[in-house]
Amino acid sequence: MRPQKIVVLGGTGFVGRHLVPRLQRDGHALRVLTRNRDLHRELGVLPRVAIANADVYDRSVLAREFAGADAVVNLVGILNERGNDGSGFRKAHVELTRTVIDACIGDGVPRLLQMSALRAGEGTSHYLATRGQAEALVQSSPLAWTIFRPSVIFGDGDGLFFRFASLLRIAPMLPLARARARFQPVHVGDVAEAFARALVHPHTRGHVYELGGPRVIELGELVRWTARMTGRRRLVLPLPDALGRVQALVGEWLPGKPISRDNFRSLQLDSVVRDDGLAALGIVATPMEAIVPRLLGAEGRRRDRNRQG
């Protein structure tokens, strides 16, 4: 395997913090673009990893940063936006992807690995619509592309189990919109492995990989399971859609924006794979039961030590 020079956008986010060390172990040289490198020094101490301050929406900046690269990995994505008109999603998903493609072509970068989402281009949510529009741009480009569509991603500090664990810690009862929505949680390490394998296997070019774990679970059961794993007895109250929409509207104004109207629209589609992309890449999916209880237990012990201190 020949080491490559790889530029990573979104490399300081949840998936990026796992992917960058994984690619570094393969001997690749990585340049991670971020708005504030001082906040991510832990990645910069890795051999062959450089963290650079960059405005990734600036075409001239990307042209400079992509020069000489063998591949670009675009992990940038948002789950919420300010307002509800889709402009934030279009900027992060569609406009940025167009700029990345133009910069790759201009600099002669042949390879693009693009993060997307299950059910991209389906349904009525701005999130899924713009993910689909970004995919269309990638697929119509002359680049050697690979697209990944994960279900919800879990791992240390995720926005799934850890977020619900935080809510369950303070709420004796949790009203839940779209409690019957189904997910196939996939481990962040498996997602990182999928990207790493795609980089070195030419047969992955021009393919879309759906990434899901071994278990399909409804949102309500996922929350109840999280409560059990944290040793809490909590009532999870499924809401009819009329009340769920109200919860989503109110949620947009709460700290951390636990749910939004666009999240509600996304939840109207099940996030379950139709083709097992992990298996196609030779990856055995990690069960959430093997990872999450230990992580939530460790998080609880950290909180206890902080309170005692």
From TrEMBL:
Question: Which residue ranges does the record assign to the NAD(P)-binding domain?
Answer: 10-153
The record's section on InterPro entries has: ComplexI_NDUFA9_subunit, NAD(P)-bd_dom, NAD(P)-bd_dom_sf
What are the transmembrane regions? Answer: none
What Pfam families has UniProt attached to this entry?
NAD_binding_10
Q: Which GO terms describe its molecular function?
A: protein-containing complex binding
Please identify the protein, giving its name as recorded.
Answer: NADH dehydrogenase
